[in-house]
Automatic annotation (TrEMBL), chain A:
Pfam families: ABC_tran (PF00005). Keywords: Amino-acid transport, ATP-binding, Cell membrane, Membrane, Nucleotide-binding, Transport. It is found in: Cell membrane. Residues 3-237 form the ABC transporter domain. InterPro entries: AAA+_ATPase (IPR003593), ABC_ATPase_HisP-typ (IPR030679), ABC_transporter-like_ATP-bd (IPR003439), ABC_transporter-like_CS (IPR017871), MetN_ABC_transporter-like (IPR050086), P-loop_NTPase (IPR027417). CDD domains: ABC_HisP_GlnQ. This is Amino acid ABC transporter ATP-binding protein. It comes from Ancylobacter koreensis. Coiled coil: none annotated. GO terms for molecular function: ATP binding. The lineage of its organism: Bacteria, Pseudomonadati, Pseudomonadota, Alphaproteobacteria, Hyphomicrobiales. The keyword NAD does not apply. It is a peripheral membrane protein.
Length: 241, 221
């Protein structure tokens, strides 16, 4: 049980943003991905659940080749939850309905089952009081926690986080990080693309430093953040810390 | 008959005549809006999702319906019908032309509503395992509907008034019936005020319905 990324290349037109990335994330692991803007971190996440096609290489999720012709992506995505920088609430549905929609339509749960799941997940992220509210009435941090609950409602085996706190006001970052801490403490397998270096250091089993489409350094946080070996890593950490 | 022709005051019969005209206006509007909206939704979605080689020709054809005055479209269609030997009554011709005319405008309304749904929102839906069609049905259409409704209401009210053009192909609707009465009693201000009131009474419920839906959605969002 793992996400296995093998020599993946990805271009947008003539611009190559991921230039041969190889990395394995084992079940139960939390891997943080850090690096400057445009280093290809977010793109790699989109490739893992097939939202973006790749140009070469392979990505295996529990042995299934994500980009193979016959792969049922709708099915595969059920076990890979993803939360984006923009929380992407469905504005025409209440918080409860946002979370219930996919379990009902994709997993075919009954209304009562889906509601039970949604209430459980929303309570878990601290939104039990907001079930009947529309997303526009929530703060950014609350909307982002709703997005996390929405992904969790599909009972995914893996969770991908794409700079989920970058668009939030500073005072709202903490509540979202707390929710992610909770998940990691429960043993959720997570790939976290983040600029929150302190958070990465605290929750990750490993940290990968991305630079210009490649992984320059990967290892335990005590090494990559605490005692970086590569000059690019040292420069990057100097600029953000 | 002769005496009624010379009668120069507005009678109950005249009012009844105008109300029958209003009925024709409503029937024309009904079919034009049904047909125009159905076609507009299909064309609008096609225009939003298809490659340029489908999009461009479809857009060009619809541009013709938007650019040529409705009056000319009605007269041309009515003559064309005779030339190719389709034996449609004028009412059917009127409904078909009005529906096509409405569909050309409705297409753009639907297309812009469709494109107003952020790609990131659609990605979020797909990332939850929803299929393309589930994304369309549960995310894109409901959001697009809210964006498109105000323009659609405006278009519907416009089409209701545009139905007056069909008198050129021999249909007596509300405005034409008013003109007939004006010709006889020579009281244009009075008769047209009544006609205007009837138009208003027909439009008002549609406008109110639109405003109510908008208000409800705005409170939520």
């Amino acid at each position: 049980m793992s996400i296995d990324i093998q020599d993946v290349h990805k271009s947008f037109g003539s611009l190559e943003v991921v230039k041969g990335v190889t990395m394995t994330v084992e079940k139960g692991e939390v891997v943080s991905v850090i690096g400057g803007s445009g280093s290809g971190k977010s793109t790699l996440l989109m490739c893992i659940n097939g939202l973006e096609p790749i140009n070469s290489g392979r990505i295996l999720v529990d042995g299934t080749d994500v980009h193979a012709r016959g792969t049922d992506l709708n099915r595969l995505r059920q076990k890979i939850g993803i939360v984006f920088q923009q929380w992407n609430a469905f504005p025409h549905l209440t918080v409860l309905e946002n979370v219930m929609l996919a379990p009902r339509k994709v997993l075919g749960k009954s209304k009562a089952e889906a509601e039970a799941i949604a209430v459980e997940k929303l309570s878990h992220v601290g939104l039990a009081e907001k079930l009947k509210v529309y997303p526009s009435k929530l703060s950014g941090g609350q909307q982002q926690r709703m997005a996390i609950a929405r992904a969790l409602a599909m009972s995914p085996d893996y969770m991908l986080f794409d700079e989920v706190t970058s668009a939030l006001d500073p005072q709202l970052v903490g509540e979202v990080l707390d929710t992610m801490r909770l998940l990691s403490s429960e043993g959720m397998t997570m790939i976290v693309v983040t600029h929150e270096i302190a958070f990465a250091r605290e929750v990750s089993n490993r940290v990968a430093f991305f630079h210009k489409g490649r992984i320059h350094e990967i290892g335990p946080p005590s090494q990559v953040i605490g005692n970086p070996q590569q000059p690019e890593t040292i420069d990057f950490l100097k600029s953000v810390l | 008959m002769f005496s009624s022709l010379l009668d120069t005051s507005f009678s109950l019969n005249d009012l009844w005549f105008m109300l029958k005209g209003a009925g024709v206006t409503l029937a024309l509007t009904f079919w034009a809006v049904i047909g125009g909206t159905l076609l507009g939704v299909v064309f609008g979605v096609v225009r939003a999702v298809s490659p340029w080689w489908i999009n461009a020709p479809l857009g060009a054809v619809l541009d013709v319906f938007r650019s040529v005055p409705l009056l000319i479209q009605l007269v041309v269609a009515n003559s064309f019908k005779t030339i190719v030997g389709i034996n449609w009554p004028p009412f059917t011709v009127g409904c078909v032309v009005l529906a096509l005319y409405m569909s050309a405008y409705c297409t753009e309304i639907v297309r812009s509503g469709f494109l107003a749904v952020p790609t990131t929102t659609r990605r979020a839906a797909r990332s939850l395992g929803m299929s393309y069609w589930q994304d369309l049905s549960f995310i894109v259409f409901p959001i697009a509907l809210r964006v498109a409704l105000p323009s659609w209401i405006g278009l519907t009210l416009g089409v209701m008034k545009d139905t007056a053009m069909v008198w050129w192909i021999g249909i007596v609707e509300l405005l034409r019936s008013s003109q007939v009465i004006v010709t006889r009693i020579q009281e244009p201000l009075f008769v047209l005020s009544i006609a205007g009131l009837i138009y208003f009474l027909m439009s008002f419920p549609i406008a109110r319905l639109g405003a109510r839906l908008e208000k409800r959605w705005r409170e939520n969002e």
